[in-house]
Amino acid sequence: MFEKSFITDCEGPLTLNDNAFELCAYFIENGGELFKILSLYDDYLVDEVKKDNYKAGNTLKLILPFFVVENLKNEDLINFSQEHIYVVNDSKFLLKYLQNAMNTYIVSTSYGQYIEAVSNFMEFPFKNTYYTNVDMDELNLNDGEILKITEFKKQILENPKNYELFDDIFFNEIPKMGIYKNIKNIDVMGGEGKKLAIDDIIANDNIDINEILYIGDSITDVEPLRFAREHNGVSIAFNGNDYPLKEAQIAIVSPSAIATAVIANIYAKNDKKTVLSFINDYNNSDDVKKLFEDYKIDLQINEEFFRIFKNIKYPLIKIVDADNFDDILKESIEMRNRIRGEDVGGLG
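Below the sequence we write its predicted structure tokens.
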């Protein structure tokens, strides 16, 4: 075991997917639009209503009855996930390096079927992952309920901002159905769930509470980023939207995970203070190659960084503050949408 732990979200920092959105778009007619509407509703319940016992990322529970209408089973999720993995450049390189540098974990809101597929693809130990555990084979609707869910879908698509209607559907009507007893017990790995995963990692690794690096990109990463920052760990928003940028101390905007590897390399061998010093020097240096030599960046990381950024501008790596927040957010959203597409990039 190492003295420090690197904990990363999956979709965003490692992969370009939004697996749940892609499942909806592929298997459900107008499913992509349905997912986007429910994702905004999910953000509303978390950010504005602050609904009790509701976690960011619960869209993954809200969408399940609509999957059942299409008769989706575990095998469907597994096969689709295996065939549709799109990675951030150099994320496999990053994970390979990390496994010899820090205790490394993936903590993701995504379904376990997708995370297992990604783990296999990345040659990363599945046992070092946390995810939303859903058994599609256990979820069933009777004929009458299928008709009701089909009608609910039509109503949602026709009334995309009628949140009173949504409240009635998801917190009154669906709880009357037999499927609800299974859905209510699903523990979505988002928001507070991710923070609890960090607690588990700290306890299992027997490390100091401040010896963690957490990196995320969306609303489901708010609580773990806040936890890392408040406990003097390293907190990073990678191509993040406004939610993680409000919580993270550090922002990375990059088409490649090699930028993350640079920060991870420095943190693995030094401490948070050295990471922050490097970032300040990086933004004031006219010779980044010499700066990498001064900070003794791993040779492979060094070579890969300058190979990727030979003919394009270096990635943004900055400490976030009130003065630069808007500029960073603009660049971050542009990169997010460019490499993940606007449909996925626009999700909370």
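The mean pLDDT is 96.
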